[in-house]
Write a structure and sequence with these properties.
CATH class of the largest domain: Mainly Alpha
Number of domains: 3
Mean pLDDT: 90
Helix content: 40-55%
Low-confidence stretches: none
Strand order of the largest sheet: 1-4-5-8
Radius of gyration: 22 Å
Strand content: 5-15%
Shape: globular
Bound molecules: flavin-adenine dinucleotide
Order of helices and strands: HHHHHEEEEEEEEHHEEHHHH
Distance between the termini: 54 Å
CATH topology of the largest domain: Butyryl-CoA Dehydrogenase, subunit A, domain 3
CATH superfamily of the largest domain: Butyryl-CoA Dehydrogenase, subunit A, domain 3
C-alpha cells in the first residue's frame, strides 16, 4: 500500500496549506465564547470553499474526493488553536450522511449547507432513561395528527443539546409492530414550544449533555426523515458514522502527549522517558495506536470507494477508548500528586491530562459501551451465535414492562 500523495494530491495539499497559512488564526480570540470561536472558523472555511469539501457542491461542498477532505483535515489539524471543539461533529459526520441517503431533496437543500457552514449545530436525541444499549426499546411516542406529528416523551445524555439548533430524534410511531420496526426519525427544532431542557453536569465538571422532556411537541410531516418505520435503519447508519468519526485525525495523538510529558517529568532525577518500564509502555501504546491508525486508513479507503461504514468500525472505539483511559491514568501517575491538580500553571499537561482522564470513561459508554461493541463484532463481523432476543419479534406493546 502506498501512503504517499499522488502528484495530484500533492498539488491539492499545497493549495490547502497555502489557504490555511493565509486564513487560519494562530491565536485564540479570548473575547468570544468557545462556540462563537468555533462557528467563526467554520464559517471562514465555508466562505473560502473549504468546509465539507467532499460533499456535492449544491449542498455546500466542493465535489472533492474523500482523500482530499482527509488531506485538508490533516493540514488543518496542525493548527492547535482550532482543535478540540466537537460541536460540529454530530451534524457533519453523522447527520449529513443520513440526510444525503434518506432525506428529500428539499431537506438536503434546507439543512446541509447550514451544517457545512457551522450556522446550525445538531444534537442526537436517541437515548432514554429506559433505553441506552437497548436503544430500540425507546418509549418516546410520535402520533400523527393530519400533517403534524405530536411527540411526547423524554430523552437523555444528549451532548451539546443546550446550544443545538436542531436535533435528530428517533421516536415510536407504531407500538403494535416489533420494537425495531415501529420507529421513525424526525428533525426537531430545539427552540420549539414543548421542549424543556435540563443540562447535566458530569464528573469532568462540565455540563455538556442534557435531558429533555417533550410535551405535545408539534413537528410537521416534512420534518420526518425517511419513511415511516425506517427509523431503526437510519439510527444504525448514524451510529456507524459516529463510530467511524472516532478514528482520529493523527496517528497517535494521545501517545504524543504522553511522550511530551515523559520527556518533561523526572524519575530518580532522570527524564522519565529514559526509564525502561516507561519506554515499554510508550512503545506498546505507540504500536497499538499505529495499528488503529492503519485500520482507520483501511476503512477510509473503503469509504472513499463508496462503501458505508460498517460494523467493523466498532473495533476502533473498542480498542481505542480503554487504551486512552490507560494512557491518561499513566500520565497522572507520572505526575504524582500534581496529576490531581486541575488549575493550569502555564504548562499544557496539567489541565489536559486530568481532563482527558476524567472524560475517558464516558467515551467508553458514548456511542455504544465496550460490551455492546463486543456483541456487535461477535454478531455481525464474526457471525457468532447471537444473544437470545425474546423481545425482538412480537408487538412492542405486548412486551411486559414497568414503564
Ligand atoms: C459522554 C456521553 C455522551 C453521550 N451523548 C449522547 C448523545 O449525544 N445522544 C444520545 O442519544 N445518547 C448519548 N449518550 C448515551 C449513550 O449512548 C448511552 O449511555 C449508552 O448507549 C449506554 O446506555 P445506558 O447509559 O442506558 O447504559 P445501559 O444500557 O443501562 O448499560 C449498563 C451496563 O450494562 C451493559 N449492558 C447492557 N446491555 C448489555 C448486553 N446486551 N450485553 C452485555 N452488556 C450489556 C452495558 O455495557 C453497561 O456496562 C452519551 C453518553 C455519554 C457517556
Amino acid at each position: 500500500m502506498d501512503f504517499n500523495d499522488t502528484a495530484q494530491e500533492a498539488i491539492f495539499r499545497g493549495e490547502a496549506c497555502a489557504w490555511l497559512a493565509l486564513n487560519a488564526p494562530l491565536v485564540r480570540d479570548d473575547t468570544v465564547s468557545d462556540l462563537q470561536w468555533a462557528k467563526r472558523w467554520e464559517k471562514n472555511k465555508f466562505d473560502g470553499g473549504w468546509s465539507c469539501i467532499h460533499w456535492p457542491k449544491e449542498y455546500g461542498g466542493k465535489n472533492s474526493t474523500m482523500v482530499e477532505q482527509i488531506i485538508f483535515t490533516q493540514e488543518e489539524s496542525q493548527y492547535a488553536v482550532l482543535q478540540n471543539y466537537p460541536c460540529f461533529n454530530f451534524g457533519q459526520a453523522m447527520v449529513a450522511p443520513v440526510l444525503m441517503a434518506y432525506g428529500t431533496e428539499e431537506q438536503k437543500r434546507r439543512y446541509l449547507p447550514k451544517i457545512a457552514s457551522g450556522e446550525e449545530v445538531w444534537c442526537q436525541l436517541f437515548s432514554e432513561s429506559c433505553s441506552g444499549s437497548d436503544l430500540a426499546a425507546m418509549r418516546t411516542k410520535a402520533v400523527k395528527n393530519k400533517d403534524n406529528w405530536i411527540i411526547n416523551g423524554q430523552k437523555i445524555w444528549s451532548s451539546f443539546a443546550h446550544y443545538s439548533d436542531l436535533g435528530l430524534m428517533i421516536a415510536r410511531t407504531d407500538a403494535s409492530l416489533p420494537k425495531h420496526k415501529g420507529l421513525s426519525c424526525f428533525v426537531v427544532e430545539m427552540d420549539a414550544p414543548g421542549i424543556t431542557l435540563q443540562p447535566i453536569r458530569d464528573m469532568t465538571g462540565s455540563a455538556d449533555f442534557n435531558e429533555e422532556l417533550f410535551t405535545d411537541l408539534h413537528v410537521t410531516d416534512t420534518q420526518r426523515l425517511g419513511d415511516i418505520g425506517e427509523g431503526w435503519k437510519i439510527t444504525v447508519a448514524t451510529l456507524m458514522n459516529e463510530r467511524a468519526s472516532l478514528r482520529g485525525r493523527k496517528r497517535a495523538e494521545d501517545v504524543d502527549l504522553l511522550l511530551a510529558l515523559a520527556n518533561q517529568v523526572k524519575i530518580d532525577g532522570e527524564a522519565a522517558i529514559n526509564n525502561a518500564a516507561v519506554r515499554d509502555k510508550v512503545a506498546d501504546w505507540w504500536c497499538k495506536s499505529s495499528g488503529l491508525y492503519y485500520n482507520g486508513l483501511r476503512s477510509l479507503t473503503a469509504q472513499s470507494k463508496g462503501t458505508d461504514p460498517g460494523p467493523e468500525e466498532s473495533i476502533v472505539k473498542m480498542v481505542k477508548q480503554p487504551m486512552v483511559q490507560d494512557i491518561y491514568a499513566f500520565c497522572l501517575e507520572l505526575m504524582e500528586g500534581h496529576g490531581a491538580i486541575t488549575s493550569s500553571d502555564g504548562t499544557i499537561q496539567k489541565d489536559i491530562f486530568h481532563a482527558e482522564f476524567m472524560a475517558s470513561p464516558g467515551m467508553r459508554i458514548a456511542g455504544g459501551t465496550d460490551e455492546i461493541l463486543a456483541n456487535i463484532i461477535a454478531d455481525r463481523v464474526l457471525h457468532l451465535p447471537s444473544d437470545l432476543r425474546v423481545d425482538k419479534w412480537g408487538p412492542f406493546n405486548e412486551i411486559p414492562s414497568k414503564f
